[in-house]
Design a protein that fits this description.
By secondary structure, the chain is of the alpha/beta class. The protein has 2 domains: 157 residues, Periplasmic binding protein-like II (D-Maltodextrin-Binding Protein, domain 2); 162 residues, 3-Layer(aba) Sandwich (D-Maltodextrin-Binding Protein, domain 2), CATH 3.40.190. The chain contains 15 helices and 9 strands. Strands 1, 2, 3, 4, 5, 6, 7, 8 and 9 form a 9-stranded mixed beta sheet that branches. α3 links the parallel β1 and β2. The longest helix has 28 residues. It is globular, with a radius of gyration of 21 Å. The two termini are 19 Å apart. The structure holds fe (ii) ion. The site of fe (ii) ion has 2 residues, from loops.
Length: 352
């Protein structure tokens, strides 16, 4: 998913203000009682995800609960900024974001409130939710090493650390430092290996890079398949989209040339959701989050983007074809909290 802030909005909408509702009531067009019910039976959702299948799930939720979902889809960072600026006037009850670091940023800006839900505590593994209950993960995504076997032996790569091997000089393709996915990967290495080891890894790996640095994963996958480099770091769902033919037969043919290596342990990131600080309908918001975290909702949300459910490996045939991974087990909250350190270290060690 792109990370620049742009005002891409699929379906602009605005909740009718209370003042407006009172004005209409005064005109005798509606009663305030009717308006109160309308507020109870709808929720505003700001989502950084933008997959058609998500909308089918929201419709399913409406059918089950009678709660209408008013959806605004935009880029994650612009949603955080929008929510911050709207403050108490926000029409959003639920915020859905991609990447642990962004969810942590939303909590550090006090944009989310704790959800009190025994269901969520029971359903979501502790490392995949905020310790104060302000967000929970809904899907998992894995950042893997992708190999062009014509140039590099897949068996020569077992960990992210192996990308620092001098034998890979000029053969490594990376997405740029602005990518929150890479930032979270580096945060994971900081947590697992400490600062000194992470620093040497970064220095050696970036000296293996063949430029340019990429601004998203898809062109990096294409470059790998065309032999511009032999190894790269990508999220599995980008490869899955190409393998599934979603970008056409030429990209599918390119994707088929590549081999996935799940480093041991693998870096796992999330998409997740929380109730906004100033939600007008926090109960409705919680119902939606519980629905999305349920087996039906979780499966739908994961499959919409070839992601993994919170537990197990799911039923996506393309992901199944890539094999299984051993998750690093780190807490998503900790990944977010080390984001700043990760970015500084990347900057100091040549990750452009
Ligand atoms: Fe993405």
């Amino acid at each position: 998913m792109p990370e620049a802030i742009t005002p891409l909005i699929r379906a602009p909408w605005r909740r009718r203000s209370r003042a407006g509702a009172w004005a209409l009531a005064a005109l005798g067009l509606i009663s305030t009682g009717v308006q109160a019910r309308a507020e109870d039976t709808s929720i505003g959702v700001y989502s950084g995800r933008h997959y058609n299948s998500d909308q089918k799930l929201y419709q399913q939720f409406t059918t089950q609960t009678g709660i209408q979902v008013k959806l605004l889809e935009a880029k994650d960072d612009s949603l955080i900024e929008r929510l911050r600026q709207e403050g108490k006037n926000t029409p959003a009850d639920v915020l859905v974001l991609v990447d642990a670091a962004r969810l942590e940023r939303a909590t550090s800006l006090d944009l989310l409130q704790p959800a009190r839900s025994a269901t969520l505590l029971r359903t979501i593994p502790p490392n995949l939710r905020d310790s104060k209950g302000r967000w929970v993960a809904l899907t998992r995504r894995v950042r893997v090493v992708l190999v062009n076997p014509a140039l590099v032996k897949a068996t020569s790569i077992r960990t992210y650390g192996d990308l620092a091997n001098p034998a890979l000089k000029g053969k490594v393709c990376l997405r740029d430092r602005k990518s929150v996915y890479n930032q979270s990967l580096v945060a994971s290495q900081l947590l697992l290996r400490g600062e000194a080891q992470t620093q040497s890894w970064l220095k050696a790996m970036t000296s293996n890079v063949t430029q340019p640095y990429f601004s998203s994963d898809i062109p990096l996958i294409r470059a790998l398949a065309k032999g511009q480099c032999g190894v790269g770091l990508v999220n599995t769902y980008y490869l899955a989209r190409l393998l599934n033919g979603e970008a056409g037969p030429a990209d599918r043919a390119l994707a088929r040339k590549l081999q996935v290596v799940f480093p041991k342990p693998a870096h796992v990131n999330i998409s997740g959701a929380g109730i906004t600080r100033y939600a007008k309908n926090p109960q409705g918001a919680l119902k939606l989050i519980e629905f999305l975290a349920s087996p039906v909702g979780g499966k739908g949300y994961a499959e919409a983007n070839h992601e993994y459910p919170l537990k197990g490996f799911g039923d996506d045939p393309i992901l199944k074809g890539m094999g299984r991974f051993q998750a690093d087990g780190l807490s998503a909250e900790q990944l977010g909290s080390r984001n700043r350190d990760a970015v500084k270290l990347m900057e100091a060690n040549g990750w452009l």
